[in-house]
Write a structure and sequence with these properties.
By secondary structure, this protein is α/β, with parallel strands linked by helices. Helix content is about 50%, strand content about 15%. The two termini are about 60 Å apart.
């Protein structure tokens, strides 16, 4: 290959890469424009849809065909994981018996950019026959889907990202964003809390990050505690039997101090037969609320360079447990 042909080949390769990058940027900007347009045009129809979905007794049925079907599955999963029970129903299968999955206590969200998806017709007619609320996510209000629906969330008039303007790209991204908006709006209306989220996400790092101190702490007979008047022989025995490296000093149900391994070492030359726990304890020990997230406890232990935190009832201030850093390690939080 001559030097000139090599140079031409490099120029061609550079042009190809530039064309590919420009195509990618074009699609991303179109999709960003579509979502931005959606945000600017959220109005009463969206609020009406949320009211419908909040008031139903049953499930939210999400349906769509082809690429819209894939988006519908994801929307149903997001709704379910944020406290709004939802289910995807395939419109083709619905015509062959799966309509039985939809009851008159449910509501249906149907996705179709054109609003003329043939496979949806039987399902749509079923909702009209049994007065099941129907919410349309579509690009055309004057379509079969748009005209049959109780309320229409209109997709923005932004072209698809492919050069032919045919492959669902911008429309599916906008539909997915609308689904997320619906899920979060319902989450707010339903008062869905972090604790509710943890109940539905017990697995993996996400579930672990939402564990509370009350889920991990030692309580009742497992707590190493003595009274201020306890002799050190009793205190050491309590510390050894509970294997947490400390003892809480409790008076009238309230934590007033702590004796740690370090406190014992500092008083090793004292006459342990005569010394009481109250005499060598460290007062005002670090504590944490029983309903605090475990991650907060880890941060506090790291900041104070300690390995234990006594746990206090949020309302009464009474001692209810003790948390060791090893409890957090076993839960996979450290």
């Amino acid at each position: 290959m001559t030097a000139a042909s090599e140079l031409n080949s490099e120029d061609s390769s550079t042009k190809t890469k530039k064309r590919e990058l420009n195509a990618a940027k074009y699609v991303l900007r179109l999709e960003a424009e579509a979502i931005s347009t959606l945000a600017d045009h959220i109005d009463g129809t969206f609020a009406h849809a949320i009211k419908i979905l909040h008031n139903i007794e049953g499930r939210i049925i999400v349906t769509g065909m082809g690429k819209s079907g894939h988006i519908a599955r994801k929307i149903a999963a997001t709704l379910s994981s944020t406290g709004s029970p939802a289910q995807y129903v395939h419109p083709g299968e619905a015509s062959h018996g799966d309509l039985g999955m939809i009851t008159d206590e449910d509501a249906v969200i149907a996705l179709s950019n054109s609003g003329e998806t043939n496979e949806l017709r039987d399902l749509l007619e079923y909702t009209r026959r049994f007065s099941i609320p129907l919410i349309a996510i579509t690009g055309r209000t004057e379509s079969t889907l748009g005209e049959m629906a109780d309320t229409v969330i209109l997709l923005p008039d932004v072209p698809e990202g492919c050069p032919m303007g045919l492959a669902p790209t911008t429309s599916t991204t906008a539909s997915l964003a609308i689904g997320d908006a619906i899920a979060v709006a319902l989450l707010e209306v339903n008062g869905f809390s972090a604790n509710d989220f943890r109940v539905l996400h017990p697995g993996g790092k996400l579930g672990s990050s939402l564990l509370r101190v009350s889920d991990l702490m030692h309580r009742g007979p497992s707590m190493p505690i003595v009274k201020p008047a306890a002799l050190m022989s009793e205190t050491i025995l309590e510390m050894t039997s509970k294997s947490l490296g400390c003892v809480g000093i409790v008076d009238s149900g309230k934590l007033i101090g702590i004796v740690t391994d370090g406190d014992l070492r500092r008083h090793i030359n004292s006459d342990m037969r005569k010394v009481t726990a109250g005499e060598i304890m460290t007062g005002a020990p670090a504590t944490i609320r029983v309903h605090a997230l475990a991650g907060e406890a880890i941060a506090m232990m790291n900041e104070k360079s300690i390995t234990n935190l006594f746990v206090i009832d949020d309302d009464q201030g009474a001692l209810v447990g003790v948390l060791h850093i090893h409890d957090c390690l076993r839960a996979g939080l450290v």
